[in-house]
Design brief:
With about 70 residues, this protein is α/β, with parallel strands linked by helices. The chain has 3 helices and 3 strands.
Length: about 70
């Protein structure tokens, strides 16, 4: 799951920008809680307009965001 992926990313030497794709709020919350020190951008995938709005607000000033799928 996302928690295991974040652990692996945190342990590896950072050479390239890290973009994490999330599909719902629980995954986004995990990135915000555990990944702020090494994740560069979060990709908000297949979310409704309301979910996108909420997600962008959560990330404002913390992470770059990108939306994809079903827009």
């Amino acid at each position: 799951g996302i928690d295991k992926a974040l652990e692996k990313l945190q342990q590896s030497p950072k050479k390239l920008p890290i973009v994490v794709e999330v599909r719902h709020q629980m995954e986004l919350d995990a990135v915000l809680e555990k990944g702020l020190s090494f994740v560069d951008r979060v990709l908000l995938d297949n979310m409704s307009i309301d979910e996108l709005t909420e997600s962008v607000k959560k990330c404002q000033g913390l992470l770059e965001t990108e939306a994809s799928g079903n827009i």
